[in-house]
UniProtKB/TrEMBL annotation, chain A:
InterPro entries: AllH-like, Ig-like_dom. Residues 51-92 form the Ig-like domain. PROSITE patterns: IG_LIKE. It comes from Mesotoga infera. It holds the Pfam family AllH. This is Ig-like domain-containing protein.
Amino acid sequence: MIHLYPFERSFDWNEEISSLTVRSIYDTVVNLKSDSGTRFSLLLKMEDYLPRSALIEALPALEKGQEIVVDLKCVAEGFDPSCLLESPKVKWKDLLLEWLEFLKREELADLLDNIDKPEKMIGLGPGSTPAGDDFLVGLIMAFRLTGIDSNELGIDRNTLGRKTEWFSSEMIRDALDGKFWKRGIDLARALAGDDVARILEKAGKIVEWGHLSGKAWLAGLAYGLEQSGVY
Amino acid sequence: MKRIEVVKGEYYDSVTLMMVAKELKKIQGVGDAALNMATEANVSIMRAAGFEVETDSLSPDDLLIGIDFEGEGIEKLFDTARSYLARPPWRKEEIEAEYSPVTLSGALTVLPESNLALISLPGRYAAAEAMKALKRGLNVMLYSDNVSIEDEVELKQFAEKNDLIVMGPDCGTAVINGKGLGFSNVCPTGPIGIVAASGTGLQEVMVQLSRRNLGVKHAIGTGGRDVTSSVGGISFLRAIKELADDSEISIIVAVGKPPAPEVRKKILESLREAGKQSVICFMGDAPRKDEGSLYYSTQLEECAVVVEALHEGGDVTLAREKLRTEYAKVSGKSSTGELSGRYLRGLFTGGTLCYEAQYIAQSYINPIYGNAPLRKDLKLENSLKPVGHSFIDYGEDEFTQGRLHPMIDPTFRAEQLKKQSEDSSVAVILFDVVLGYGSAENPCSDLVEAIRSVKRDIKPVYVAYVCGTDRDPQDIEKQRSLLESVGVIVCESNARAATLAANILSRKER
Amino acid sequence: MSFKELLEDGPRVVNIGMDRFYLDLLDQEVPAVKVNWKPPLVKSSLMEKLKRLRGDDIE
């Protein structure tokens, strides 16, 4: 059984998990599944931090289905996926509402059609993680930033796994629990401040994420902020 | 095999599209590649190039990618095209992929203290964006052409009411407080203020002033149509007023084509009231006598010479005479040995430079045909097949549909230069090279390659003018040396180059 | 900002269109922002939805 030794972790991965199975492998990210079906991730790059993830210096060759052990003894915390953030400043309104424009893209037309019923977005749209899920997570973060209860969306946590792909369902569940990815948190922090160059930089990092995922996420954030009535 | 793919709802500017096409054509097996927004005009162009375009659900906001590829796997090339659009391969450094706003409102949150919108969108969108900018309190520089005269008047009247200015449409050059906008040369700042209804005319005047160590504080472009009677010179007059009020400006220069009579009257009045000396250069005008504080010139270098004389408190008449003497010397240098052929061909990228060169050359050789001739009856039937003496402006509309302006991309004119060089009836070729911001990085290299590759027993004589300063990014010395290395005679001004080229021929004719 | 103020303060530019102009402005240390301009949506039900979301007039 292979043992891996990350050097840093997110705050919410703070116990040894008895068995983790490799679920998906990318250049700089490996996603793992616990017995209970929960996602954990190993990362090479800090900017890819998400809930229940840990940074590792190098990844060995792994295979899907392989069982591994992740040793967290004395591993420092480096990322808090639940950190509380202030709501974006009103002066950025015209800029962030631009992110709704991503919905003009032909591939995201389905999302635009269902925009009035966000819970219908689950599993909808193109992408290995459906764009509708990314949109929804952005939306949920927007609600969190503006103090709106996400329960209003009427999403049933228990049926998520059936409605959409595994990684996405974990992502949505985390969002409902108030946990988000580092790119999103960095952007939210920038929007609460006054440095516009930072906002453009952090937004840029999300726009280029995946083919459509990042754009859908930003559109969801913008929609949520717009719907919040704060602007 | 030629195939088209449509990408819906994604807009790219023409420069990006053409550069992607250029990159695709570098790939082995790609015979042709064309990327265009699906406007009616572009659809015709692509059909003419042999691509089958289905127009059923097509709108001008859709992108057409056309690729001609021999062999398997044409689909991969379309993927390549898309990846080039997303991540341009010609960008040398890894520019941080930061988000750029997509609306004017968004941009104003990023730079709330903006005072100018520089708009270079296709004509069909430009006017609406310009009005949005004016309504948000921004001045406008409208590089775009193909804006209707009604829109131009509406924009300028709105601007006037709101204490703003519209520079353009078709305004490619401006300098404000020493900073260049659009195509502009890096010149010193100083006590001169210029208002110009012409792009390369402005550039040549600034460059000639710079050679005489005279700096310009502001150079306001107004677009070519401003001084017509429909527009009434709104921007031109406003610019004169501001230059008149500026205590750091001691000489005002007005450059352009001759204005409509009632606009000319207002301009002259305004210059008289300015309380400063003014030099007026309306190209194509009949020569006029200087009167009071108003000095006239009909050529761009002469204009700079007059300004210099005024600035130094010298004798303007003497200065003009000295210039004429120098031109006579240039003519004198025109015996260059054996000439093969009978005709002069002028191949230009700057519209006003082409105009001035024709104007000067016609007093030595006649007639001169062209695509932007001095007289309508001298217009060429086919600008790609010049006859007799001909001057071609490759920046004209007919050449810039589906092609980058020759100042940005020298390839097309270089091809034409080679073609003209191999025409045995052509004895002399005259051309301009414009440096500065906006222009190509190494504009002479394509021309020099073309000259080197010319197959002909006796090549034509090449005469050129490099319009630039020693501070321009392209390194003027390097550009000149490149040209001289293949035997091009490089002159110090557009006027001198035209004079020399025309004299080489007229000597032969005598 | 009036024309006079533009001349006095120097340009601070919103570039809408060709990137090369924006890059040249940065080169001269002129404050500038570039707009990745997109044409307005062709009229359709999609546009109506977006219009409602934005609450402004998209032409």
